[in-house]
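haha ok so turns out i had the wrong file open the whole time. this is the CORRECT one, sorry everyone. sequence first:
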Amino acid sequence: MKKTGKKGITLHVGENFDTVAKRVANAWHRAERGEDVHEHHVTFASWEALSSVMTKKRYELLRYVRHHPVRSVAALARDIGRDYKRVHEDVEALTGIGLIERGVGLRGLRAPFDQIQTTISI
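then structure:
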């Protein structure tokens, strides 16, 4: 990932196994040489896989969390005026791919990235 001064993540769609393996090996070798390797990548097998996780509502939720700290899923649901169960499902999906962090040591929910880049292989 390019150094932009912002913390980012790259979502990859449709990459083959060899491409993913090369990216991992490259980062591994750079780490062995003592270089800082602070890259965040998530790979989806297909467009359908990405779009099942990154829905419009989840994108809106992610943007809200990025700019407005929240203590809990319940507080988030109240803030954005949505049903708790649906917000909980959305938070779990975004946590599962690393776009939202929560848990021990964190006070509430946070979206740690300033930007999301997407590469789509065709």
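Strands lie at 8-13, 41-44, 115-120.
again sry for the mixup
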